């Protein structure tokens, strides 16, 4: 089965840094682009960052550009989100996300993990 398991969340102070990890299993990780999305309290889902299958191309939402860095280690089936200069408005549940093509189909299907809570507060 497909599993995306986020970790690394917690309580951090404004201006500090933390790194989230997403351990993937159940699919050919190295062939898929991966993303991070987040949901702040009372808000909808917001796309945060994405990375190509080989890690050579990345993109970021304007709200995190210059502060967050996405990376991946295909040998470990893991994608990371390094978060620097954290702000209170970064407080959210962060989800690892991928559009996968299930066996026997030709069409992508969204998958995401259980999420990890990041709280930025002094």
Give keywords.
single chain; 122 residues; mainly beta; seven-stranded mixed beta sheet; four-stranded antiparallel beta sheet; 11 strands; 0% helix; globular
Q: In short, what is this structure?
A:
The chain has 122 residues and is an all-beta fold. The chain has no helices and 11 strands.
SSE map:
Blueprint: E1 3-7, E2 10-12, E3 18-25, E4 34-39, E5 45-51, E6 58-60, E7 68-73, E8 78-83, E9 92-100, E10 109-112, E11 116-120
Parallel strand pairs: 2-11
Antiparallel strand pairs: 1-3, 3-8, 4-5, 4-9, 5-6, 7-8, 9-10, 9-11
Strand content: over 45%
Judged by helices, strands and strand pairing, the structural class is mainly beta
Q: Biggest sheet, open or closed, and with what strands and sense?
A: 7 strands, mixed
What is the CA–CA distance across the termini? 39 Å
**Share of residues in helices:** under 10%
Mean pLDDT: 97
Q: Radius of gyration, rounded?
A: 14 Å
Strand segment count: 11
Low-confidence stretches: none
User: What's the tally of helices?
Assistant: 0
Q: How would the global form be characterised?
A: globular
Order of helices and strands: EEEEEEEEEEE
């Amino acid at each position: 089965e497909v599993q995306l398991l986020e970790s690394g969340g917690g309580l951090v102070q404004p201006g500090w840094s933390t790194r989230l990890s997403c351990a993937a299993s159940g699919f050919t990780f190295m062939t898929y682009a991966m993303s991070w999305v987040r949901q702040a309290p009372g808000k909808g889902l917001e796309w945060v960052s994405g990375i190509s299958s080989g890690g050579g191309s990345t993109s970021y939402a304007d709200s995190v550009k210059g502060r967050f860095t996405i990376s991946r280690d295909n040998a470990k089936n893991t994608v990371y989100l390094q978060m620097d200069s954290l702000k209170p408005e970064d407080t959210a549940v962060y989800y690892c996300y991928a559009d996968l093509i299930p066996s026997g189909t030709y069409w992508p299907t969204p998958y995401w993990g259980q999420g990890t809570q990041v709280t930025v507060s002094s």
